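Memo to structure team: turn this sequence into structure tokens by end of day. - J.P.
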Amino acid sequence: MPHGDTGAPYDDAKLPSQHSTWHSKRKNTSRAIEARAINNGMSKQDTHYATLRRKHRENAKKSGTYKPGAGQPVESRIWLYGLHAVEAALNNPRRLSHQLWASENAVAKMAFEPQPGLTIQNVHPKEIDKKLDTGAVHQGVLLEAEPLPAQTLENCWEDDLLLVLDQVTDPHNVGAMIRSAVAMGAGAIITTARHSPGESGVLAKVASGGLEHIKYVTVRNLANTIQAINERGYQTIGLDSEGSKDLVETVTGRKTALVMGAEGKGLRQKSRETVTDLARLDMPGPIKSLNVSNAAAVALHVVRSHGAFKSKERFGA
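Reply from structure team:
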């Protein structure tokens, strides 16, 4: 029987080696994918769980039980969901909203003035389930809107407290840090253009409305950005377990930028070299480390509690 376009017959003797070559190529491809994911800020544990999730989806598709989100927002727009995230977005004059799907119960729980051009459609929560991926906790409300206008570093110099993220990739962690930053009166989140999450429904949901109350700035070169912040008179403090002093002893009370590294790998060397200070968070209990979003919340509170800081009206609040 001819083989492909060559017309050559199958060579039974070569089948085992061909099979082995195929498996070898598949293994090399898997390793390459894992290496690329790790280079993009994911840990080996992250890639392991991603593989498990992919296998779960494939098995669900084969069994006919997989139920992906059936819809997609209009190109260039995003979907926001969750009561706090959507209510804050609807009340943000900088956010252009187009379409709101909401249950009667959800609408009754929100307070907002409809923007011109906003279409509101009363739907059963199951209709929103069909649009979103399985597992999204939307609380009966979904908003299609434009992403927020881009912010720049030049917009941040009036703020006395900044939170800088060094390739923190998980949107759940970043969303939690946005929420804490807003609660502690920080003026901006500054993060890298690469290896960081963009604006999304997940990020906004975890931020619980905080995304609408803070500047979210992305930069191309973080070390140069930290240096620019230094030159503006800020104390830039990198959180690091090897810091020479505890954060409480490090804060001077002048304008401050806290720099947080990614979970697992921490601050990159260039960031460590550029900040004015490296500090640690001393934990009195048997567990000596915190999730990056929890560490950020504690650090923000330490800085904000310093006597030299005075509360003032926040940007967009």
